[in-house]
Amino acid sequence: MTDFAQDSADDTAPLTGPQIAELDRRHLWHPYAPHPDPAGALPVAGAAGTRIRLADGRELVDGMSSWWAAVHGYNHPVLNRAARRQLDAMSHVMFGGLTHEPAVRLARRLAGMAPGDLSHVFLSDSGSVSVEVAVKMALQYWHSRGRPAKHRLLTWRGGYHGDTWQAMSLSDPDNSMHHLWAPLLPRHVFAGLPPAGFAAPVDRAYAEHLERTVAEHAGELAAVIVEPVVQGAGGMRFHQPAYLRILRELCDRHGVLLVFDEIATGFGRTGRMFAAEHAGVVPDIMCVGKALTGGYLTLAATLCTPRVAEGIASGEYPQLNHGPTYMANPLACAVAEASLGLLTDGDWAGRVAAIETALAGALAPTAKLPGVREVRTLGAIAVVEMDRPVDTARAARAARAEGVWLRPYREMIYAMPPYVSSPEDLAMIARALHAAAEAAGQH
């Protein structure tokens, strides 16, 4: 360790922005980046409302909601109070053999909000783990029913379900960031990419393709798992909700469970509380996370119907063998319950509709820029898709010059603003998307 690093580690005085950046470069990995990351990371000193305050004094409007989670913005007084109250009572206690008020309150609220009879709640500590739990639920359900041959899952291409092992195996095998591991991952069944367009008519040929694929593999399928309506990190693609109804009917006909990954889409992001509601469909298992705590703490949940829970409990091995150390962390549960209360007690739907209207209107000129393949909006999601991979550092700099934090990737320049974004914030985000697309379109 260098003298600088040793001195900094021992020093209790606040670090300067340059010191933070240097220590970060020396010691820290960042997601989806090499170590050290040649692009570097911006030191943040604080955040409030929709603004991120950098260590050098600049403020940026957060167009990303901290990877789609901070729907109420930062430093929210209601969530702060919930965290402080719970911290004074207990920050954590193991969930094995014990329970507590924050967990049962959160489970009751989730069961009341979720579509249909998704009333059984397994709490975990990340979205990827909630997918792992969903897979275990589906496999163990059929094992308990005496059908162990039903051990594979079906999904469609273009998806992304997380970075843990089963989650990676269900993400697109060719075009996701996980293709490196494809030879080592469990082999599941992939249908073709769902046709693009939220309002596009149903492609009957694709519907027949789904029918053939499910029917062909029904004897070995435990479940079908998809991201409903919006495929997130796999490409920010929107699809017609009717395909979810088709999947529900096929799963019912062929004796297959249906799993919806609502980690990115849940809690209002698409204009409905859950994206499944666009189709009027209830899955057997549903994963939620990201916005669950309003971006304060890591927490996720896997919900299932009584049929699934009772099916597992009736088997030779009635327990679901999964138990994260921080399962049902009281601090996270208390903040999550307060965050969901803010949603249900406020006009989240009106706010999300206003975001969609503002961004759709302001981005109309962006669609005409060189290199722009498509501009699309749905709920509090705006996507500018380019016709080539984006120089992400260059595009992000262009957005920062407009006072906005965006994180482009692949061909996508997109925003998922906090629901509390003001008209001024949204105008700035639209200008930043335009500027980033303009920079990305330059040869």
Please provide a written account of the structure:
By secondary structure, the protein is of the alpha/beta class. The chain is built from 14 helices and 16 strands. Helix 7 links the parallel strand 5 (152-156) and strand 6 (189-191). The longest helix is centred in the last third of the chain and has 19 residues, at 423-441. The two termini are 43 Å apart. Residues 1-5 have low confidence and may be disordered.
What is the correct CATH architecture of the largest domain?
A: 3-Layer(aba) Sandwich
Radius of gyration: 22 Å
Identify the overall geometry. globular
- Order of strands across the main sheet: 4-12-11-10-7-5-6
Distance between the termini: 43 Å
Name the average pLDDT.
95
Largest sheet: 7 strands, mixed
CATH homology group of the largest domain:
Type I PLP-dependent aspartate aminotransferase-like (Major domain)
Our count of helices gives 14
Low-confidence stretches: 1-5
Structural class from helices and strands?
A: alpha/beta
CATH class of the largest domain: Alpha Beta
Q: What proportion of the residues is helical, as a percent range?
A: 25-40%
The third-level CATH topology of the largest domain is Aspartate Aminotransferase, domain 2
For the record, the count of structural domains works out to: 2
